[in-house]
Design a protein that fits this description.
alpha/beta, Rossmann fold, 5-stranded parallel β-sheet, 12% strand
Length: 243
């Protein structure tokens, strides 16, 4: 009997440990909902060597964090299961004007307090500049954007300030976009409206988020979505891994 028991202990010790699963809630709008970002993130994690990810959304197209906060049903999603991480993705022009930066800071403070009550950690989803060379920089209605660099720099600075306020991490998706576009401005990261992400754009965002959430290199993953060829996927993984 002792021999059998000893053998059983050896087998249990040798068995691989069950991978940790991160329960992640995304609070955001169409940048989160487009191309099933959360589903793509789960598949990337499943193909890698790190924790698995279970991702859900509390999102509405075009919504701000303030509007999402005022939706009690969405706010209560924080308490569905045990959330490890809550990703906050604000409306994509929020960092460009002082008044919207202030509104976001107030709303994010409320979210941060509630996230802490739920026992989770916040992550700030840094979004990207509008497509360089597009009408966004020539249409007078959006004159406050000025240039892609101006938009990018404001996104980065405001996201960093928000993260400091909430003691959160930043998922530098916008920086990854900028790095890739600097290498090749023709990369198809955008839909026809020059701001929503294409499938490759969503894939790049998911890869950056994977690294931020798990601390693992996207280079270890193998999942590639339909609409992205193997060569492009390798480049996108390399860009995300450098963030």
């Amino acid at each position: 009997m002792r021999i059998v028991f000893a053998l059983l202990l050896m087998l249990l010790a040798a068995a691989p440990a069950q991978a940790e699963t991160l329960n992640v809630l995304f609070v955001g709008n169409s940048y989160t909902l487009r191309n099933d970002l959360t589903g793509m993130l789960e598949k990337i994690a499943a193909s890698g060597k790190g924790p698995q990810i279970k991702a859900q959304t509390a999102a509405k197209n075009g919504a701000t964090l303030k509007e999402l906060w005022n939706d009690e049903k969405l706010r209560n999603e924080l308490y569905v299961g045990r959330r490890n991480v809550v990703v906050l993705q604000e409306q994509s022009l929020w960092a460009q004007l002082p008044e919207t930066v202030e509104d976001t800071a107030k709303s994010a403070r409320l979210w941060g307090e509630e996230i802490a009550k739920a026992g989770a950690k916040p992550v700030i989803f840094e979004t990207w500049e509008r497509q360089p060379g597009s009408f966004w920089y020539t249409d007078k209605r959006f004159g406050f954007l000025k240039t892609p660099k101006n938009m990018r720099d404001k996104n980065a600075a405001a996201s960093a300030a928000l993260a400091a306020q909430l003691k959160a991490q930043v998922a530098p998706v916008g920086h990854a976009y900028a790095t890739l576009l600097k290498q090749n401005s023709k990369w198809p990261l955008y839909e026809a409206d020059s701001h929503h992400p294409s499938i490759p754009g969503t894939y790049l965002a998911a890869l950056v988020l994977y690294k931020t959430l798990t601390g693992r290199s996207p280079q270890e993953t193998t999942f590639v979505p339909q609409g992205v060829n193997a060569e492009s996927a390798a480049i996108l993984r390399q860009i995300a891994a450098a963030e």
